[in-house]
Amino acid sequence: MNIPEPGKWHRTSPFAILFFIGRMIRLLVKNAWQGLAPLLVVALAAGGGIAGKFQVAAIGFSALIVADSILNYWFFRFQVGERSILIREGWLKKKQLDIKFDRIQGINTRQNPIYRWLGLLTVSFDTAGSAGSEGNLPAVTRAFADSLRERIGKGQVPAETDEVDVEAVTQARLLIRLNWRDMIRIGLADRRALVILAFIGPLMGGDRVNIDAVVARLGSIARASGVELAGVSGFSIGLAILLGLVLVFVVISVAAAFLRFHRFKLWLDGQTLRSRGGLLTRHENAMDIGKIQTLRLQQGIMDGWQRRFRMTARQAVASGKKRSSKVFTIPSVTARKGNELRKLFLAPEGGVLSQDPRFEGFTPISPFSMRSKILFIGLLPSLLATITISRMAGMLGLVFLLWLPLVAGLSYRIWKRAGYQHDNEEIVRRSGFLGYRTVGLLFRKVQRVTLTQSRYQRRKGLASLRMHMASGSVRVPYIDHGLAEQLRDYILYKVESSGQSWH
């Protein structure tokens, strides 16, 4: 299937109904209460018991989703013109999109197992000025997607079969290929698993989990089976349960990494950066390297132990909403590989500086940033709380003095990890608390520069410099006021003197 005849409206494959069913389910999950309301109404109106009511409601609700998806497919039309793509969709609320070719920043594809078996995929368009994908063409062939990329000027994606894929990707300059060991690293470094584990301790100590009762129950079951567990304590059982939960969360996290990034490949096709990965649903993303606004290297605790980073490249967005939807992600790189990639992405202007947080070339910010936190967040609140509580509870109020050394320790760690470096073309900002994060950007892509001074900073001759870009802002706090002014003026000069596009 090539590009359809210009000037005529076309439908996609009837299997696009699956796309609309999935979109409706995601919408209902996102707005759970609104989605459950019709289900509850149908359940209460139906006769019989509770189980019967919910069964009727579930059938009715499923029928509504399928009917809505069929109608959405029937009213979906698209037209490929000389300079734009027109999309008409919706049966209750009709909408028409006019997506200009010159506004398209990337063409991404998704392919679930059913579409992969049928040779179909869903094409989505990232455009300048929108926070997420502006339009979708569900259930189209790969030949159509390749022809569309060629029409728009974004090149072609290699064929899907593994043999051809490896050869074609290699010819297009393969940059990264991740294996199963990397999937394990990505899963272990997932912060969501750590957040879940943070709740295990309080849960284990609460009234909901009575370890002694569990031990007694296990003992009675063992004795009935002829096994003696007299030496097993409640602490041992609790520790075993905790380790079991940790193992479960680790397995889930690693499985999620396989689902999203299995056989991940990153390659450069001309000036277009492309990636492909996924076990069940295969994701293909594309980004023009000339449209990269900022490059970030992030390293959590587990990443630090494995000496790996998560690298992201950010595009321009129109507003503060859904900034993460315009992020191109490379899930696992070493510091050396990260520097190689940034040199490639920012060439020929930038890429000289290092984004390795342990690089010795970073200039520390003023230690007065630490002192201000200790004074205004640590000392004053702790004294106020101590005086207030001591009047009511006596010596117990002295406990709040412990807040001061805690804030001092945290402030020192944050200050120690903060720093920046720059040359004539770019700047890199370093920050972190448990881990590290470095952000690099080209001066010419800055849209606006602001210089701020608090009363405390003014007394110390310091200022904070913030560089505003189409993908967000980067702040360098507590640097010399004179240096901040020089940087501000120089950045504005680079922006005004550059003849290249900022986005």
What does this structure look like?
The chain is α+β, with helices and mostly antiparallel strands. The protein has four domains: 16-156, Roll (PH-domain like), CATH 2.30.29; 186-260, no CATH class; 292-365 and 418-497, PH-domain like, CATH 2.30.29; 368-415. The protein contains 17 helices and 20 strands. It has helices spanning 16-30, 32-45, 50-74, 113-118, 142-152, 162-171, 180-188, 191-198, 200-205, 211-224, 234-261, 301-306, 335-346, 368-393, 403-417, 455-460, 481-497; strands at residues 77-80, 84-89, 95-100, 104-111, 120-127, 133-141, 174-177, 265-269, 272-277, 282-288, 294-299, 309-314, 327-333, 363-364, 419-422, 426-431, 436-442, 448-452, 462-469, 472-480. The strands form four sheets. The chain has a seven-stranded antiparallel β-sheet with strand order 6-5-4-10-9-8-7. It has a seven-stranded antiparallel β-sheet with strand order 13-12-11-17-16-15-14. The chain has a three-stranded antiparallel β-sheet with strand order 1-2-3. Strand 8 (265-269) and strand 9 (272-277) form a beta hairpin. Helix 1 packs across helix 2 (32-45), helix 1 (16-30) crosses helix 3 (50-74) and helix 2 crosses helix 3. It is globular and about 70 Å long. The protein starts with 15 loop residues before the first helix and ends in a 6-residue tail after the last helix.
At a glance:
The chain has helices spanning 16-30, 32-45, 50-74, 113-118, 142-152, 162-171, 180-188, 191-198, 200-205, 211-224, 234-261, 301-306, 335-346, 368-393, 403-417, 455-460, 481-497, and strands at 77-80, 84-89, 95-100, 104-111, 120-127, 133-141, 174-177, 265-269, 272-277, 282-288, 294-299, 309-314, 327-333, 363-364, 419-422, 426-431, 436-442, 448-452, 462-469, 472-480. The chain has 503 residues and is α+β, with helices and mostly antiparallel strands.
